[in-house]
Amino acid sequence: MTVLCRPSLFIHGRFEVDPPTANNNNQSYILDSGAVALTASWAAKTDAEAMSALTTLQTMDDGTEDLPSYWNFYGSNGFKLVQAQVTGGFERDGTTPLSDDSVLGAQVDMAGHSGTGPVMFQLDPVDAISAQIICASLTLASGSDSVARLSAANPSRAHLRDLYPFRLPGTPDNTKVSATFQTTVDSGDVHITAGDSSSLQAFADALAEGRDLVFLYCLYNCGRPVHDAQQLAAAYARDERPNNPRTGDVIGRITTAPKGALRSQPAGRRLRAPAAQWLAAQPGPGAGARVLGPAYVEVDSTVEDHATLTLNTISTIPEVLNGSTVEKVDLGELIVGVSTSDGFRRLRSVAAETYAEYGRNAGCFAWPLTVAELKDVEANPLELRFGDSPLQADECEYLLATDDRNVCLDAGDTTTLEVRVTHLGRPAPGVDVIVGPWQSGMSAPGARATDGEDTGPGFAPWQSFRSTSAVVKIPMVTTDANGVASVEVQTGSAGSTMVVFWVRGTQSPPQDMSFFECDRCFYSGVRVLPDDSGLAAQEATWPTVYETVLRPYALLYPVMNEIFRLDDPEAVKGHADQILKVIDPAAWETTLYMPISRDLSRGRRDFLTRWLNTASDANRPTNEDN
Fold it and tell me: Is the preceding omega at residue 595 within 30 degrees of 0, hence cis?
């Protein structure tokens, strides 16, 4: 049983996301994200001057009028599902569509810790491909009294894996992009009240066997916020603080996975469009051409004489706006097959009217395989084709994946990224994996400095993999008997980078980290926080604490000021105990951790803690007070 089959529930609904946007740095460069500090011109302003400038229309570099704080100054980093419900699924066998089951129509919800909601944030605030979502629980509830039928606690952090930038060609950027996330819950943290639901009973049985619960979901068709820049500026002038989130559509699947499977990324064999088709859809001549997003195929042969093939197109097929309705583009019959030495061999197909009903089937299709077909699938790369359309998706024969997706380090720290390498869906032992932080120029040919052996066309010398943010200690790693490459990374100066991986001699390194390259390479985000160890020698006074630690958050994330003002020492003192709890690294994987942006360095946290402990001790009642 795997993430893509037996049993499954399909989800469809809406979502709402509420990011703070003053840190976007689209045209107004306000935040130095490496130093986690205001840029010099903004730091020179008083707080009043900065707040006035952030909430007043300005002429941008491109000649347009906009707010330096952009479209959601008072965003909370919140994320929530809205009217999401179970629309279908597969029975226990993984191929029979679910029907007449009491779980159909159940409401799906995600919650945060201690009454908060889920949060979405980015490893680097200016880097969308590092988005993550943390929640405390996932529930399915049905009936007029919303009785929980399934309750799952402590889901793993969900990392963005597939960012498909051409799902709705010709629409504004946030509308045309889709993003796929996955979270996993240990079987011991899931409670199911199956009742008369055969589907929920199948889940209960799977979990009793030690499998874990998985929720894979795709966010798309994210519309414009309610208020435009002129309306926001007028509201700010009236001393109002409007919230301005975006809403969109979500489809997903709840299923199970064996212990030890990837927790934050889709399992299975990955297929993607040929490079030429992606390039045709890039900005410039030919921009707006349709192109397929990634697809996954899972082959399950654990049941004797009943192998199954499950196709996941949750973020594969482009769409079009028909009025206000989003519809799948009719590309003709979807055909899944294998690419053999004798050519393409068809296995199964999906009619256009069937994949058009993705709200009901979540883009998931499954079929039994004969013994002969199973051998074909296990021995050859997979391929997707569409009727007479030239669009297709080919298998990445080597798949490199890691749950160490977004790593945040303090200066001086080291970490090990565990990268799993598979070939045609099976672990690939003894494979050489070339690794290094991405930087421009990686496509230049060259030789490895360690042994002088040529790495082949399109590979760079390993010395060029050193970035200012991270250094890969060993530039080439051989996978172990389980197909795992252990990549050691040490910190450089403050900043962010993407550590990329590829199999030596079979793949090319990325040219840049555009949407195109992010889909076509394998990587892990690494952020190094500023080295603030020098603060240990300074006296922790309020002016220094505010200027060094709190001021960027007070100005760029002003929603916090609605609870208590970060620029008021008495208000901060009054909340000292609560602040100490939420900045504790033990709260990192919860929705309570502050700052939500998770860019408070160890040195600044210790400095703030020193001042807060003094303030907290001073505010505690003495024996005489008692």
Answer: yes
CA angle 216, 217, 219 (to 5 degrees): 160
- pLDDT above 70 coverage of the chain, percent: 86
d(CA 499, CA 485): 13
pTM of the model: 0.91
3-state secondary structure 537-604: HCCCCHHHHHHHHHHHHHHHCHHHHHCCCCCCHHHHHHCHHHHHHHCCHHHCCCCCCCCCCCCCCHHH
- Residue 230 near residue 242 (C-beta atoms within 8 A): no
Measuring CA to CA, how many Å separate 327 from each of 222, 321, 330, 340, 579? 14, 6, 9, 33, 47
Residue 256, SS3 per DSSP:
strand
Q: How many CA atoms, within 13 angstroms, populate the side-chain half-sphere of residue 42? A: 23
DSSP secondary-structure letter at 52? H
Strand 78-90 and strand 107-111: the pairing is antiparallel
Q: Is the pLDDT of residue 516 over 70?
A: no
Per DSSP bridges, beta strands 147-153 and 190-192 are: antiparallel
Q: Is residue 178 helix, strand or coil? A: strand
Question: CA–CA distance from 425 to each of 56, 168, 506 (Å)?
Answer: 54, 30, 16
Give the C-alpha separation, 397 to 543, whole Å.
57
What gap in Å lies between CA 15 and CA 250, rounded to an integer? 6
Q: Which of 576, 137, 180, 595 is nearest to 408 (CA)?
A: 595
pLDDT in tens, 60-105: 877 889 999 999 999 999 999 999 999 999 998 888 999 999 999 9
Q: d(Cα 14, Cα 212) in Å, to the nearest integer?
A: 25
Higher per-residue pLDDT: 606 or 506: 606
How would you classify the pairing of strands 484-491 and 522-528? unpaired
Partners of 587 in beta bridges: none
Q: Which positions ≥6 away from 315 have C-beta within 8 Å? A: 162, 164, 167, 178, 180, 218, 220, 293, 294, 363
- Residue by residue, DSSP assigns 319-379 as EEEETTEEEE-----EEEEEEETTEEEEEEEE-HHHHTTHHHHTTEEEEEE-HHHHHHHHH
